[in-house]
Here is the input.
Amino acid sequence: MSRYPDAFIREIPKTDLHVHLDGSLRLSSLIEMAEKGGVGLPSYTEEGLRELVFKESYADLPEYLGGFAYTCAVLRDLENLERAAYELAMDNIEEGVCYIEPRFAPQLLMDNRELTMDRVLVAVDNGLRRAKAEYNARPEVGERGLPPFDYGIIVCAMRMFGASGYSPYYDAFFGLHRDSAPAEVIKMAAVEVARGVVRIRDRLGVPIVGFDIAGQEAGHPAGQFREAFDYVHENFMHKTVHAGEAYGAESIFQAITDLHADRLGHGYFLFDVGKVADPGIDDKREYVERLANFIADRRVTIEVCLTSNLQTNPTLRDLRRHSLGRMLEHRLSTTLCTDNRLVSNTTVSKEIRLAVENFDIGPKALKNMIVYGFKRSFYPGPYAEKRNYVRRLITRYEAVARKYGIEAESE
Ligand SMILES: [Zn+2]
Here is the structure.
């Protein structure tokens, strides 16, 4: 019997700061949307799709990413986007997650006609806002009751896309820039989306709170995206960067220096000496130690996605060997996230359960991890308001912990 009962994990207020909208659809909705829109799927039953596409485990990252072709195909539709965003918020609310930062790459879902970046982002915001309004109006939510639900949107640029098959928008973008090298075209698309998100936030009031780059890390160094990140940085937008998912410490260093990352997506290979490639670094062990301490001291928060890492790193096998243990030993700021609720077949509660069952996480450490999710969020309101919100969530956490006799004495 675990020291943390399921009911306790269900009741504590939780966050998900790393969740891809296009990887988190309800399977039943994906099938319905595909049938309605004439999108081809390898199976039209949930069991069939679980067997063929959204599996329990994957051979490698490319296989893991295979399902996104289907989810993105159905999401190139404003009504479906609104619905997917609404359902994502509701699924989180149902398991006691009261703050989320869904992310996605609009350029994967755009075409050059009615699916503009403005409309795509407004549709997602409408779905999230509808869920928030519905939930926050429930009688049990409010001043003296359950904490209200809130969200901010994170927009991703893609680290990599090719000349065809990624999306109608990218196909056209590549087609129009035939005299530029592929790396140059990718960089231009990232700058374009960076300008768009600042404008859409400022002019349309869509709560876009962060900017990210997603997609294949290998061969696409962070430095390539400096201009896009400089632009959002100058416009006071937060940054998180997928780094250390496939590459190691140097990619993480680039993310926090070149791209001003406030948080890191995964950071999985942070301590992996074998992933340090620069021949100029003599003592690789010392390099990763110093980097880890640097990150810890600056409170750069790592968005840890256990199931996803297990699924895309076939060599990991045993979760106890995951770098979360070392992150905790180094007192890094970490928060548990799902990455993809559908593709990884997980929930925030499952991720917490996995963490406490595979690592030595006492009540104080668990409370810290949950609280970092709120503290290091890119909350859309003013800082003073954020502090009140965080304070309220901590009070709620403490009340639930008391109820279950799981009190965090000082360690
Ligand atoms: Zn991710």
Q: What stands out?
A: The chain has a mean pLDDT of 94. The chain is about 50% helix and 10% strand. The beta strands are 14-20, 97-104, 150-151, 153-158, 208-214, 238-243, 263-266, 301-304, 334-336.
